[in-house]
Amino acid sequence: MSDEIEFSDEFVENFLDNVFEYWFNDALEEKGLEREDFEKGQVFLKNPFALSQFEDLEADDSDVEVYVNDDAEVRVQAELDTDRDIEAGDPIYAYEVEGFEEVILDEEQEDYGHVTVADMGQLGWFFNFDFRYNRSYQGPLTEAADEFIDTAEYAKENEKWRVFVENAFHAAERMMKIDVIFMGWSAETHGDVQARYSDLVDMGIGNPDLYDVFNQLKGKYRFSASYVDPRGDVDEREFDFGEEEAEEFLSVIKEHREYLEEEDGE
Q: Gene3D superfamilies of this UniProt entry (predicted)?
């Protein structure tokens, strides 16, 4: 995520100052070290949502883990420019390194926000950060969205409008849910996703067109497409949906899916 930002000298200086002030200075002080003794460090911003799915958080558990120098296991994927064969454990020289691509994290760490900083000597400072939580959920949610999109397309081609509404609704919701849980927010119900994504739209992060499609599917079409209310408040005969709506909704949904693919570099 950090590679999407243009790093001016001023940005780098301010970023490092803030990271040390918030996290690394205290960790160095505990070791009796100064800032000039810093070699490498990592910060993991743990989030209760990711953990609460599998275990309870103890009251004295910290939501932040900070590691510096020997305690920090920094692993970085490097881009090399060399003709020689390199095997695990072989030395790599500064002149062979063209750049660094990404930080390699453990499976559980993928669901935490993280900051990694390392002094690479001749290569200068390396840092990488991604403050999104629950990133391991993106793949399964995207796969589910793709299945719903495929089924919605089939339904549109065969004019199965009730099937289209249900699948388009779930496709939109799965993609909205990705952004909601990236913030570390709860997304257990349709209402959670709707309310929290509304906040993202207000913040300028969410896609207002996708949110509008979701709201129309949820509030205007889905109930009458799927249910008969025994009280007579809703009747399936009131379901009024066709090709024009399907074209519009599917266009917005597929456009957002393409955006996710471009953003993730697939």
A: Nucleotidyltransferases domain 2 (1.20.120.330)
Q: What is the pTM of this model?
A: 0.75
Q: Which two tokens stand for residue 111?
A: 């669901």
Cβ–Cβ under 8 Å, residues 28 and 34: yes
The secondary structure element, H or E, covering residue 67 is: strand 64-68
Give the residue from 131, 217, 209 showing the smallest Cα distance to 169.
Answer: 217
- Give how far Cα 67 sits from Cα of 27, 46, 57, 120, 256, Å: 7, 14, 20, 17, 37
The C-alpha atoms of residue 169 and residue 50 are separated, in whole angstroms, by 25
Q: Measured between alpha carbons, how far apart are the two ends of the chain, in Å?
A: 14
- pLDDT digits 0-9 by tens, 62-93: 588 899 999 988 887 767 777 777 777 767 76
Greatest CA separation found in the chain? Answer: 76
SS3 39: coil
Tokens 């993106």 belong to 138
Query: Which are the contacts of 163, defined by CB distance < 8 A and separation ≥ 6?
Result: 151, 152, 154, 155
